[in-house]
Design goal:
Oligomer: single chain
Distance between the termini: 71 Å
Bound molecules: aspartic acid
Structural class: alpha+beta
Radius of gyration: 24 Å
Order of helices and strands: HEHHEEHEHHHEEEEHHHEEEE
Length: 346
C-alpha cells in the first residue's frame, strides 16, 4: 500500500509540473525583449561605394569604427552612463583624420577649420552645443562642458573658445587640423563650383563631402544619450552652421522615445528638424523607431530635397540606421557584445 501511495505521489508531481510548463512555458516572453544596453555610431553618410574604396582604406575605416564603438561599449558594460559612452566614443572618432570631425575636419572657404558639436541627455533633456570653434581639440568635450558647467545650451566662436580654455579643455594650433588632402579637396570643390557655376546646394558637390561623426547609447540605468561632431561642409563660409550642433536637427535624446544623431546635408536637416521629428512621431503617433526613421529619412527629407542619414536607439535598446545616400559609415554593439560594421548600402 505504502509503495502504491509513493508511486501515486510521484506521478501526480510529474503531471503537475507538466501542466505548469504549459501554462508558463519558459521560452515564451511575456514582456517584449529589452536590451540591457546598446550603442550605435556613424562616421558620416554620402557617396560611399565599394568600387571607390581600396581594401586598405576599408580596413582602416573598419578598425577605427570598431576601436571607437568598443570604447563606448566597455563604459556601458561596466555600468557607466550613456552620456560618457557617447562623449568618449566620439573623441576617438574626432582624433582620427579619417572623419570630418576634430582632427579630420574639412576646410572652410578661407582654408581654416570651424567645428560644430552637440550632446543631449535623454533623462533630463539637458543639452550642450558649440559652433564655429577653431582651436578646441575635441569639440564634443566642449559641448559636454556647455551642458554640465554653463547655464546655456549653445556657445559660439570666440566666446565658446574662451569658455573652453576656462574649463581646461585641450587647445591646439590650427595646423593640428591641417592636411594636404583637405587642402586639395577645398581646391577641387572651389574649382568645380566655379566651372559649373554651381551653388552651395549642388548635389554632386555636397555629396562628395562626408564624415561627420555621431553616437547614440542606452545605458543599464535606462538612460539614452546622443552626440554629434563635425567640421561641417568643405568650402563653407560666412560662419555657416550646419545641423550637427542644433538640438532637434542633428542631435536629440529623450528617455520617453529615442536618441538620434544625424549626418548629411545640414540645411535640410535643420529645416526638417530631423532628429526631433523621429522622436515626435514615436511620441505622438506611436510609431516604432524604425517606422519613424524610415518616414523621415526616406520620405520627408528627400521631399524637401535633402540627403543623409541617422543612427538611433529607442528606450528598449532597439537600434536603427537609416540613410538615403549610397552609404554611411556605421557600427552597432548590443549587450551580448555582438558587433556589426557597415559602410555601403547592403
Ligand atoms: N551635417 C553636416 C553639416 O551639414 C555635414 C555632414 O553630416 O556631412 O554640417
Amino acid at each position: 500500500m505504502k509503495k502504491f501511495i509513493h508511486l501515486f505521489l510521484v506521478v501526480a508531481l510529474i503531471v503537475s509540473c507538466k501542466s505548469e510548463e504549459k501554462v508558463n512555458p519558459k521560452n515564451v516572453q511575456n514582456e517584449p525583449q529589452k536590451a540591457e544596453f546598446s550603442i550605435v555610431i556613424h562616421g558620416g553618410a554620402g557617396t560611399i561605394k565599394k568600387e571607390h574604396m581600396t581594401r586598405e582604406k576599408e580596413m582602416e575605416y573598419r578598425q577605427k569604427l570598431e576601436e571607437a564603438i568598443r570604447v563606448g561599449y566597455t563604459i556601458l558594460k561596466n555600468g557607466g552612463t550613456s552620456l560618457d559612452a557617447v562623449q568618449k566614443t566620439i573623441t576617438v572618432l574626432e582624433d582620427s583624420p579619417l572623419f570630418n570631425a576634430g582632427r579630420g575636419a574639412v576646410l572652410t572657404y578661407d582654408g581654416i577649420n570651424e567645428h560644430d558639436a552637440s550632446i543631449m541627455d535623454g533623462k533630463t533633456l539637458n543639452a550642450g552645443a558649440s559652433t564655429g570653434t577653431r582651436t578646441v581639440k575635441n569639440p564634443i568635450n566642449l559641448a559636454r562642458k556647455v551642458m554640465d558647467e554653463s547655464p546655456h545650451v549653445m556657445l559660439s566662436g570666440a566666446g565658446a573658445e574662451t569658455f573652453a580654455k576656462a574649463q581646461g579643455l585641450d587647445i591646439v594650433e590650427s595646423d593640428y587640423f591641417f592636411t594636404e588632402k583637405k587642402k586639395e579637396a577645398l581646391e577641387r570643390v572651389k574649382a568645380s563650383e566655379k566651372n559649373k557655376m554651381a551653388s552651395f546646394y549642388d548635389i554632386e558637390i555636397k555629396d562628395s563631402k562626408f564624415g561627420t561623426v555621431g553616437c547614440t547609447a542606452l545605458d543599464k540605468q535606462g538612460n539614452l544619450a546622443a552626440g554629434t561632431s563635425t567640421g561641417g561642409m568643405t568650402n563653407k563660409r560666412w560662419g555657416r552652421i550646419g545641423d550637427s550642433p542644433i538640438i532637434g536637427a542633428g542631435t536629440y535624446a529623450n528617455n520617453a522615445t529615442c536618441a538620434v544623431s544625424s549626418t548629411g546635408w545640414g540645411e535640410f536637416f535643420i529645416r526638417g528638424m530631423v532628429a526631433h521629428d523621429i522622436s515626435a512621431l514615436m511620441a505622438y503617433k506611436n510609431m516604432t523607431l524604425k517606422e519613424a526613421a524610415q518616414l523621415v529619412i526616406q520620405k520627408k527629407l528627400p521631399n524637401l530635397g535633402g540627403n543623409g542619414g541617422i543612427i538611433a536607439i529607442d528606450k528598449n535598446g532597439n537600434m536603427t540606421m537609416e540613410f538615403n545616400t549610397s552609404g554611411m559609415f556605421r557600427a552597432t554593439m548590443n549587450d551580448k557584445g555582438e558587433l556589426y560594421i557597415g559602410m555601403f548600402k547592403d
